[in-house]
Amino acid sequence: MKNTWRIGVAGLGTVGGGLVKFLTERPHFAPAGGTAVITAVSARDRSRQRDFDISGYEWFDDPVALASSPDVDIFVELIGGSEGPAKAAVETALRLGKPVVTANKALIAVHGRELAELAESVGAPLLFEAAVMGGTPAVKMLREAMVGDEVDAVAGILNGTCNYILTEMEQGSRPFAQVLAEAQRLGYAEADPTTDVGGFDAAHKISILAALAFGCAPHYAAAEVEGVDQVELLDIKLAGDLGYRIRLVASATRSADGVSVRVHPALAPIGHPLAETRGALNALFIEGRRIGRIFIQGPGAGSGPTAAAVAADISDVMTGARRPVFQAPAQSLQPFAKIDAAHNVGKAYLRLLVRDQPGVIAAVSETLAEVGVSIDSFLQKPVEDAGGVPIVLTTHATPEAAVLEAARRIAALPAVLAPPKMLRIARV
Amino acid sequence: MKNTWRIGVAGLGTVGGGLVKFLTERPHFAPAGGTAVITAVSARDRSRQRDFDISGYEWFDDPVALASSPDVDIFVELIGGSEGPAKAAVETALRLGKPVVTANKALIAVHGRELAELAESVGAPLLFEAAVMGGTPAVKMLREAMVGDEVDAVAGILNGTCNYILTEMEQGSRPFAQVLAEAQRLGYAEADPTTDVGGFDAAHKISILAALAFGCAPHYAAAEVEGVDQVELLDIKLAGDLGYRIRLVASATRSADGVSVRVHPALAPIGHPLAETRGALNALFIEGRRIGRIFIQGPGAGSGPTAAAVAADISDVMTGARRPVFQAPAQSLQPFAKIDAAHNVGKAYLRLLVRDQPGVIAAVSETLAEVGVSIDSFLQKPVEDAGGVPIVLTTHATPEAAVLEAARRIAALPAVLAPPKMLRIARV
């Protein structure tokens, strides 16, 4: 075993800065027997003001040059993005047989299989605990602790920004745009929030977890993605009246027909751990055939937690462990067969805006019955300035295609003022 | 790396049987590249009726002989007990340089440091994921995922039998003895339930977690242990009236003064994850300085989950990872300095039985004030056949010594019919 592992860190943002601080505070970080020390760093702007000192490290303008430096034993990629310098630098390090630790969910979700194959061909670890749930070890749980089981489903809250926004909307009765602007001001949301609020970040993460859980290749393109940007305050309030909270739920399920990977707002019953996961917290259920149901909850982002996850991966590299990047050897990983979302069976929430006139409810009920959708609960509530009467109903478990067809038919009814808003109810 | 790892299993009870079934169903169990196959087994009674086939394995009457067999590469110890054949066999395997996987919490809690030193001196892994929380990977989380952090506290529900009993008492309004008898009939509790209901099993487990969390030697003798056998149905009901549920909480906390490892019944607020952990589930909070608070919940026992944890450890052995058994090298592990429990500060619940006469409450309040204990909530409730009036109060956070002194003084008041019952309120 090596005694000293020289770490090269590319990317000195929130996570990179956290890692520099951590290893500065613990210069003898040696959980596996050797010592890890940062020797080289790279970032976009050398002269940028930072609250940590990088003068003791070799500086590289080019992360690819850092990755190939002979003075770097472990390459830590904290640049981000599925293409460009992050990918080039990771590939360079792996081709040289160097262990790579990354927090880059997009890179692993999109190119995970080919990178794993490269890593395994040279016998170098490729670790990415920090890519999912920050400091909460979801990757390690699925990759290592669940190998003695078959996992059939993982589902949870994987984007802290979206959960913060939904919680704030719910608790402060403020609309999406207002809460988003505030989150941006507080640094909880990016200037361009699309990756987070569009659900794409959560989709990257659940794609990685699906691969680990089911032994298939990450298959980001197959994920069905909706974000929180279309969640209306009115639905949060009406869902609350029905005993639910709205959360952005990322899920991956496996059946005999294939795999379904989805991200969408969903209603979780108040009291359920997903509904009780508030603010920037993340949460995950793992369902294994032998182990049963495991729930894990913790901070999903932030400098400290994410840097701690990177440090744990560095420690894992130092143990010399040899295992497949994704639980099964990369060459055997195939993209999964995608299940048509229309076949998914679940409960749904439908919100209509109707004219205040007799016979409307009868017409809606008949339309639902025509396509075989049965009603579980029904709520009509006067709302000021709504320009009509909002009606909310939840259905019993139904194929999604039937609910969507019902929504189309209801939209065409003369007394219905706007296309129904459909939200799924989380399987819990 | 080896291609085939020959597994010797000593102990064919619930967990051993689960492991045999698992590896029979997955004959090519090879998550780390090699294949694991059982070649030899040992148990007390060869001819005992079993629902799995052991005719294909070499039989050993003596687990020590199994451990030393040249046809065994990994020794799996599922006998149990801190002394006797389990310890002898584990020592034998380690002395021969063989990796050991065990589910034996008593062995690790009592002899963990010396066994770790032996294992590290010969370079053989000693893994015990199944010893704590069954299939829920608490050990891996603390040993591997938290190395990039400093953990200051772990607390949770670590004994499924006790939690089952408390939940049943609560939901069925039945007394301890009745629920215990039923649990024994259903196989949820042992014929001799002392280890579980006395809190000793949970104390073994929290001793192991404390060692992993704080980088000290397991120090079982320093744990303060109370079980659930003294929990009365009346307290469950009264705690419920005050908004709490009673759980057996195992906790380990670290401060500048030392470490406190405790197991005792405690009140958790309804809605809190510990209060919402029902039946045989286990749950654990981990508090790290950087990562923050992680919560994990899952099945804590049972054949499938625990065997899956053993299989995951076998897989870890097959990766060739070299790391200290307890996060820091065994030679550096010292038993922790124990904090005097009387210095612990927390809220408490006191239940009194008093005569129905004027001035009693004043006398109790004055006594509490004398020792500096202030009251948070107060409940007086008529209870039939109680032989007096039960009064329940909860205190603000107070050093435990003060609460105990208050209880002593209250017991001496003329109008108080029985010594007060004191329960701690969980720090949440």
From TrEMBL, chains A, B:
<feature type="binding site">
    <location>
        <position position="190"/>
    </location>
    <ligand>
        <name>L-homoserine</name>
    </ligand>
</feature>
<dbReference type="InterPro" id="IPR036291">
    <property type="entry name" value="NAD(P)-bd_dom_sf"/>
</dbReference>
<dbReference type="GO" id="GO:0009086">
    <property type="term" value="P:methionine biosynthetic process"/>
</dbReference>
<dbReference type="Pfam" id="PF01842">
    <property type="entry name" value="ACT"/>
</dbReference>
<dbReference type="GO" id="GO:0050661">
    <property type="term" value="F:NADP binding"/>
</dbReference>
<dbReference type="InterPro" id="IPR045865">
    <property type="entry name" value="ACT-like_dom_sf"/>
</dbReference>
<dbReference type="InterPro" id="IPR001342">
    <property type="entry name" value="HDH_cat"/>
</dbReference>
<keyword id="KW-0028">Amino-acid biosynthesis</keyword>
<dbReference type="GO" id="GO:0004412">
    <property type="term" value="F:homoserine dehydrogenase activity"/>
</dbReference>
<feature type="binding site">
    <location>
        <position position="105"/>
    </location>
    <ligand>
        <name>NADPH</name>
    </ligand>
</feature>
<comment type="pathway">
    <text>Amino-acid biosynthesis; L-methionine biosynthesis via de novo pathway; L-homoserine from L-aspartate: step 3/3.</text>
</comment>
<comment type="similarity">
    <text>Belongs to the homoserine dehydrogenase family.</text>
</comment>
<keyword id="KW-0521">NADP</keyword>
<keyword id="KW-0560">Oxidoreductase</keyword>
<dbReference type="InterPro" id="IPR019811">
    <property type="entry name" value="HDH_CS"/>
</dbReference>
<dbReference type="InterPro" id="IPR016204">
    <property type="entry name" value="HDH"/>
</dbReference>
<feature type="binding site">
    <location>
        <begin position="10"/>
        <end position="17"/>
    </location>
    <ligand>
        <name>NADP(+)</name>
    </ligand>
</feature>
<dbReference type="InterPro" id="IPR002912">
    <property type="entry name" value="ACT_dom"/>
</dbReference>
<dbReference type="Pfam" id="PF00742">
    <property type="entry name" value="Homoserine_dh"/>
</dbReference>
<keyword id="KW-0791">Threonine biosynthesis</keyword>
<dbReference type="Pfam" id="PF03447">
    <property type="entry name" value="NAD_binding_3"/>
</dbReference>
<keyword id="KW-0486">Methionine biosynthesis</keyword>
<protein>
    <recommendedName>
        <fullName>Homoserine dehydrogenase</fullName>
        <ecNumber>1.1.1.3</ecNumber>
    </recommendedName>
</protein>
<feature type="active site" description="Proton donor">
    <location>
        <position position="205"/>
    </location>
</feature>
<dbReference type="GO" id="GO:0009088">
    <property type="term" value="P:threonine biosynthetic process"/>
</dbReference>
<dbReference type="InterPro" id="IPR005106">
    <property type="entry name" value="Asp/hSer_DH_NAD-bd"/>
</dbReference>
<feature type="domain" description="ACT">
    <location>
        <begin position="349"/>
        <end position="428"/>
    </location>
</feature>
<comment type="pathway">
    <text>Amino-acid biosynthesis; L-threonine biosynthesis; L-threonine from L-aspartate: step 3/5.</text>
</comment>
